[in-house]
Amino acid sequence: MNKKFEKLFIHFITENKENMYRLAFSYVKNDENALDIVQDTIHKALTSSETLKSEGSMKSWLYKILVNTSIDFLRKHKRIQFVDDKTLELHSPTGEDVYPDMDLEKALEELPHAFRTVIVLRYFEDLKIDEIAEVMNENLSTVKTRLYQGLRKLRIKMSDEIFEEVK
């Protein structure tokens, strides 16, 4: 590994550690497991640094490793842990608005995995659609379709819940 890559990698990890943790946490819903996944991701990235095609694609390359490590963890442990709002609130970044009554997280959890992943990567991790396609190893059109279908399902789910509250 060359010094230039090492400096760039350390800078990227330092700048994005909260985002990486939050993405891992969105999969496993547990502090320790999310930290383990981030640590494993960094280790895997360091050992496979030669697979990085260009320094400009470091974000999507690292997120791809993170998503795959998270999925591998879930497969290995075959469990999903749910957390209450208080725990989630503790892990959300400060300075952002917190809406404890919103059912967005619940509605996201009810979406199929492929739709949820695309929505989280696009709107919570601010990846571009082509970066998401690279992370998920999917065609660009597949990612677009999943994003729009996922948003439509989410919109329907959220409006149904609002309608139920009004009754």
From TrEMBL:
Keywords: Sigma factor, Transcription, Transcription regulation. It holds the Pfam family Sigma70_r4_2. GO terms for biological process: DNA-templated transcription initiation. The keyword Transcription regulation applies. One of its GO terms (molecular function) is sigma factor activity. Residues 102-154 form the RNA polymerase sigma factor 70 region 4 type domain. The keyword Transcription regulation applies. It comes from the Bacteria. Transmembrane segments: none annotated. Residues 13-79 form the RNA polymerase sigma-70 region domain. InterPro entries: RNA_pol_sigma-70-like, RNA_pol_sigma-70_dom, RNA_pol_sigma70_r2, RNA_pol_sigma70_r4_t2, RNA_pol_sigma_r2, RNA_pol_sigma_r3/r4-like, WH-like_DNA-bd_sf. Belongs to the sigma-70 factor family. ECF subfamily. This is RNA polymerase sigma factor SigV. It comes from Paenibacillus albilobatus. The gene is sigV_2.
